[in-house]
Amino acid sequence: MSEDDEIKPKDVPEATILFVDDDYLIAMSTVDMLEDLGHRVIEASSAQEALAILESGEHVDAIVTDHAMPGMTGAELAERARQLRPNIPILLATGYAELPPGVSSTLPRLGKPYQQRDLSAKLAGLLPKKSPDRSHSQ
């Protein structure tokens, strides 16, 4: 990716992101990255907690979830989340080169470990593009 092609934080629309990871250190680091990009972050430490947030009616623009979590994987969470909110963008973060059989290959993936620019670029591809009218910005 050339410097001209690089996604800059200002190119990614501000959004409310539901971030799901059972690893406290990864969660802390990623939440910092997301907030630095201008996003509002709702944290969940399990897929079950994330589903409860979605069921509560809380506004969420996209989900970024770890894949390997106890109880319910990120791919299983994605399937359940889409039952509640069919059009919600979901990004699956995983350190695995290959996902197990049966996991949807259509889920956008973010390889671990990742940097802020990787996260920003993936979100830019998932979220609706920013409007040129910035009069509603803070």
Oligomer: single chain
Order of helices and strands: EHEHEHEEH
The CATH superfamily bears the name Response regulator
CATH names the topology as Rossmann fold
- Provide the β-strand percentage band: 15-25%
Round the Cα radius of gyration to an integer and report it: 15 Å
> What is the total tally of β strands?
5
Lay out the secondary structure.
Layout (H helix, E strand, L loop, with lengths): L15 E5 L3 H13 L3 E5 L2 H9 L6 E5 L7 H11 L5 E5 L14 E3 L4 H11 L12
Parallel strand pairs: 1-2, 1-3, 3-4, 4-5
Helix pairs in contact: 2-3
Outline the structure in words.
Keywords: Phosphoprotein, Transcription, Transcription regulation. It comes from Phreatobacter aquaticus. This is Response regulator. One of its GO terms (biological process) is phosphorelay signal transduction system. This protein is an alpha/beta fold. The protein contains four helices and five strands; from the N terminus they run E-H-E-H-E-H-E-E-H. The protein has a five-stranded parallel beta sheet, sandwiched between helices. It has a single domain (12-98, 105-124), classed as 3-Layer(aba) Sandwich (Rossmann fold). 32% of the residues lie in helices and 17% in strands. Helix 2 (47-55) packs parallel to helix 3 (74-84).
